Hints:
This protein folds into two domains: about 55 residues, no CATH class; about 100 residues, no CATH class. About 50% of the residues lie in helices and about 5% in strands. It comes from Sphaerosporella brunnea.
Amino acid sequence: MAPPPASTPTFSTPSKAGISVNSEGQRVIPASVRADGSIRPEKRVREGYRPPEDVEIYKNRNAEAWKTRGSGGVPGAEPVDTAAGKPDASNKNAKRKAARKKAKEKEKETDDSAPKTAATEVATTTVEAPASKTEEEIAEEKEKQAKAIRKKIRQANDLKSRKEGGESLLPEQLEKVIKLNELTRQLKALGFD
C-alpha cells in the first residue's frame, strides 16, 4: 500500500468532540464542508486541552453498587422470571374490563335472541329498579341546586335592600344584585318557583 501524498495529511480516528491527530502529530479539528458548500478550515487544538465531550465521567463503584442494591435479587439464587409471577395491577384492571365487556355483550345477545319468559321479565324489572334510583338521585340533585339558588337570591335581595337604603356596596356585592334576574331564570329552568 502506497503512502498518501505529502500534501494531504492523514488523521487518526476522531474523538467524541471530533479532534484528530494528523500525520505531523498535532491535534486538530479536520477541515470540512459546510451545508452551503463553503469549506471550514482545519483548526489546531491547544496542547493539553480536553473538551467536555471527551472527559470521562467518574463512576464510583461503591456508589453504583449502593444505587442498584436489591435489584439483583438474592446472591446465589436463580433469577426470578417476572412473567411467571403475579401480574401487575394494570393487567388485572385490563382483564376485569375485558371480562365486563364480554358479560355485557352476552347479556345483549341473550336479551335480543331469547323469547321473554317469566324469568326474563323478573330480570328486566330488577334492572329497571336501579334506573328509578338514578331518577331519584337526579331529583335530589335538582333540589340541592334549587336550594343553593334560593340562598343566592335571598342574599341578593338583602344586598338590594341595603343598596336602596343608601349603603355603599362592594363591586362583588353589586354583581350579585345584577345577577338576580339570571338566578330566578335558573330556578324556573329547574322547575321551581
